Amino acid sequence: MTSPDPQLDPSTIAEFAEALDAAHLQARPIPQLTSRVPTLTLADAEAIQAEGFALREERGVQLCGWKMGLTSHAKMLQVGVHAPIRGRLGDKMRLADGATVRTEGFCHPRIEPEIAFVMGRDVREAVSAAEALDAVALVLPGLEIIDSRYRDFRFQLADVIADNTSAAAFVLGGPGRSPCELRAAGLTLANLGVIFEVDGQIVDTASTAAILDGPEHALAALIRSLVDEGKGLRRGDVVLAGAPTAAVPLRGKRTVSVRIEGLGEASVRVAAEAG
Ligand code: OOG
Ligand code: MG
C-alpha cells in the first residue's frame, strides 16, 4: 500500500479536508469529491484523510487506533466498493458500552458489528497474521457507527478513504479474551459466530471467517500498510477488523447489540429523536 505522492496541490487537499470536516461538524452531507475531481487518486485520498484528522487533533482529539473497513463481501456488496480500506480512530469517537446515542449529530448513521483488538505492545514492522495476533492483549466484541459525509451514503473508493472510511463512533463491549485464552477455550478467532440484534430481533448472523481469512489478517494488513509509511501500532491502540455483516440504519431504532462467540457482547441504546 505504499502510496505515491498526491497529484492534487496542497491547497485543494486542505479545501477537501475542510469540506469533509464541516460536513461532519454540521451533519450536512456533501457531494462526492470524485464528482468534482473524477481522477482523484488514492494518494490524494490518503492525504485528505490525514489532513482531516489533523483538524480534529487541533480540537483536542487524540489518535487511539485504526479501523479496517470493507474486509468482508457483505460490506463490499453493500457499498459497491471492493477493496479493504484503513481509517483513523479518535479517542472522542469511543462510546461506553451500553451508552445512549443521539442520532441528530450524524448525517445518516449506520451501525455494524466489529471484532476489536487492543494491542498489548508496539508493532513497528510487518508481521504475519499469527505474529500480529501475538501482539494483541485483548479481543473484544464491538459495534461501529459509520456515517458517510457524502450525499446518499454513496461514494467511490477514493471518496471513502478521504472521508476517514466513514468512521463516526465505536463501542467496545466485553468481557473479551486474550488470544491465548481463546485458544485455551478451543476457539478459533477466524471462526467465531456473530449475532447482530436490533430491537431484540436478530437481523443478521455471520462468522468471523467472513473477514478476509480471519480478523487477524485484517490486523496484519493494517500493520503492513502502516509500516509501509513509517508508522506502526502502539500498545493500547484499538483496531477494528471490519464488519462481517452489512450495516443497518441507526435512526428509529431503540437498541442494537452484537454477541460474539467466546467474547461476550456490546450494545448501544438509541435516543428518540426530538420532533
Ligand atoms: C465504509 C466503512 C466500512 C467496515 O467495517 O467495513 C467499515 C462504509 O461502509 O461506509 O467500517
Ligand atoms: Mg466498520
Structure description:
The protein is α+β, with helices and mostly antiparallel strands. The chain has helices spanning 10-26, 33-36, 42-58, 73-79, 129-134, 157-162, 179-184, 215-228; strands at residues 63-69, 85-90, 94-95, 100-101, 110-119, 136-146, 167-172, 174-175, 193-198, 201-207, 238-240, 248-249, 255-260, 264-270. Helices cover 28% and strands 28% of the residues. Strands 1, 2, 3, 5, 6, 7, 11 and 12 form an eight-stranded mixed beta sheet that branches. Strand 9 and strand 10 form a beta hairpin. Helix 1 (10-26) crosses helix 3 (42-58). The chain is globular, with a radius of gyration of 18 Å. The chain binds 2-oxoadipic acid (OOG) and magnesium ion. Magnesium ion (MG) binds next to strand 1, strand 5 and strand 6.
